[in-house]
Structure formats: structure tokens, C-alpha cells
Design goal:
This protein has helices spanning 10-21, 41-53, 66-82, 97-116, 131-140, 157-163, 186-195, 211-216, 286-322, 347-356, 382-394, and strands spanning 90-94, 122-126, 143-147, 168-174, 199-203, 233-237, 249-253, 264-266, 274-276, 328-329, 337-341, 362-364, 369-373. It is an alpha/beta fold. The model has no long low-confidence stretch (mean pLDDT 95). The structure holds pyridoxal-5'-phosphate.
Amino acid sequence: MKLPKTGTPSDDLFARINEMKAEDADWRGGRTWSLIYPAGEDVDEVLRRANELYVYENALNPFRFPSLRHMEADVVAMTVDMLGGDERSSGTMTSGGTESILMGVKTARDLALVERSITAPQMIAPISAHPAFAKAAKYLGLELLQAPLRADLRVDVEEVARLVGPNTVLIVGSAPNYPHGVIDPIEELAALASAAGISFHTDACVGGFILPFLEKIGHPVPPFDFRVPGVTTISADVHKYGYCTKGASVIAHRDKATLDHQIFLYDQWPGGLYGSPALAGARPAAPIAAAWAVMNYLGEEGYIRLARVILDTVNRIRTGINGIDQLHIWGEPDATLLAFGSEDLDIAAVGDFMDDRGWHLDRQENPRALHMMVTPNHAKIVEQFLGDLREAVKNPGTSRGKEARYS
Ligand SMILES: *Cc1c(COP(=O)(O)O)cnc(C)c1O
């Protein structure tokens, strides 16, 4: 396509967009098991209004838009507090989990350069850690060492200890990891890092806004946040279980002193002092306003109410899957994500059958599995989903071998 010579009337334009959009996944109907975290029409309305108010502003210079500076500070403070931080803690907002992780890795790298003169930095992450760590290693010039998992799909701490060397600047654990929804042994990993004078990052991108509330309703949650000694940074995505529209995450620092290694300040050009907290230059303002709005709209009470709905839904799904002979859930998921597979069936073929019924399940490898990330929106479709799954297991056929995003 080339830029059209003449403009298009907006009615025609939106007719065309809506026509294209008709092919998109039906997330409102509860048909997607990743990517979107719907929390109800009232929350949608709050998000729409906040986004609309800040379509045009730019969060690059917080002194031009004090409302944004204020809201970002509030979102960070609320998140840090939820994650067991105190008055020494701080952080910034970023565009998402990947950017928060990049900033955590950069902080560890630059800290180790200044304090330990490490110029060939290495980081250690579980094989199940999110690809954002591999991306960070590649972008920021670190070597990534991957540690294997134990039989319970949590990282093997002894293997991590074996990988620690003089150039290790960062150890990583997930709370929970994306593939299997299990929490790595954060206390042991962080103690190992702390004893060696190494930074430790908890990746709570998906867990940061659900685990604190699961804990409050009495669900057993292994320690993962700043209450664990040795955890130095945490990533937590407001655009996942914080229910914000996309573009909102927090990178939290236990000690605000380490923020200096994240923030970029520059004055060697004619344009005056330029400061930037993370990767973006010009920054969308709407995600900041939407994050502030949804967190204040729901409050602890709202997040707890939604956590109860999700936990109940996950339990119904787990019981349903465990009730199907040929299927089993991998590991013991600690939160609201899970993966299931089979010893007897081609699980990808089960996924294909489910595709045909309009359910979008990501495929995984090692172990082969179908993946589910449960939201409040799924409460209404559990029986229909399990009914289709039982049929799929009876008629799996052979897989068409369609590659899904995480396979
Ligand atoms: C989603 C996720 C990320 C990456 O976050 P994005 O917002 O997609 O960049 C990192 N870690 C875990 C465990 C995640 O679930």
C-alpha cells in the first residue's frame, strides 16, 4: 500500500477498520487464553475514559504535565507497597514487562561495572524465564546462562549455584513463570545472590498484580517480593492482572540508589539537559492515566474480589482437566496460569480441535502442552470449554502442526 493521494471520509475508514477487525480473536467472549485481561464492563469504562483524557499528552517531560508526574509517582508507590517495599524503595513506569526487565538487567549490569569493574557481565536465568531476558542479554551485551528445572518445573538452585562465577552480575527468578505458572524458589535464589554480592530480579510481570491478592484471600503464596532479603528489583505489569490497557508496567527497586543506574541523563548536545527514565523518549501518557485510574477504581477490595473469581475459575478448570483421564496439568501451578499435556495423545491435535471450536490455546514444548492464563472473564465459559475439551480428547486425530506463538 502507498499513502493514498486523497483522504478517506472517516465513516468509510471506520467501516474498513471494523471489517478487518472482524477477523480478530473474540476476547470479550472469553475465547483467548493469553494477551488480554478483561475485568468487566465497569472497568472497561474507566479505562476508556482515562485513555481518552490523555490521548495527546507526552510523558517525556513530566514538568510540562504535572498530572502525569503525580500519577506515575502514585502508581509506582502503590505497586512498591504491594510488593513489600518501604520508604527506601522506588521505581518508574515503563511500557511493559519487556521494558521493565530490560531496565532491571541494565541496572544490574551498570552497578556491577561501577562497583565491581565487571566488563564481561553474565546473568543466570531459569530456562523457563521469559524471552525478555534473552532479549535484554542480546541488547545490553550480557551473556545469558540458562539453568535447568527440577522435576517440579521450578529452577534447580544447585544448578544456578554451579553457574555463578566472577562475572555474574544478576540472578533471575520468576513469580510465577509464564510456561507453567510455578514460582521459582525465590528465597533460596535471592540468598545465593546476596551472599555473592550479586543483584537479584524477581520477574513478577504476570504475578505482581495477582499474588498479593491471592495471599490476602488465604491462598498459599511462596515469598517472592521485597520481603525476601536479597531481592533487588521486581518487574510487575499493570497491563496484566492490574487490568490496565496495554503499555503499563512498573520496574521497582528495593533501594532508590540503584535507580541512578537505570535513568539516562545527557547534556552533550545543544538541546539542553535530556533525562529519560527508561527506553522510550516520547512516552504515551494514556497508560499512566489508565493505570492510575484502574488501580484507584478497584482498590484492594476490587482486586481481592477479582482474585476470588479467578481462583474459583482456575480451580474449576483444574478439576475439569484432572477429571479427563488422558490429560494432566504440568507441575503444581502456584497462581492463575497453567499448562496441560498428555502421555497418550498428541496434545497439539487437541489444540487444533479446540482451535476449530474457537478457543485460542498457545502451544508449548518441553514438555508439550497447551497453555491457559485465566482471567475473570473466563468464569462464564468454564463448562462450555471443558465440554469441548472432553470432545477434543475423544477425537484428537493428528495435528495439523500449526505453529503457535510460544511453540
Ligand atoms: C508477560 C510476561 C513478560 C513480558 O511482558 P510484556 O508486557 O509482554 O513485555 C515477562 N515475564 C513474564 C513472566 C510474563 O508473563
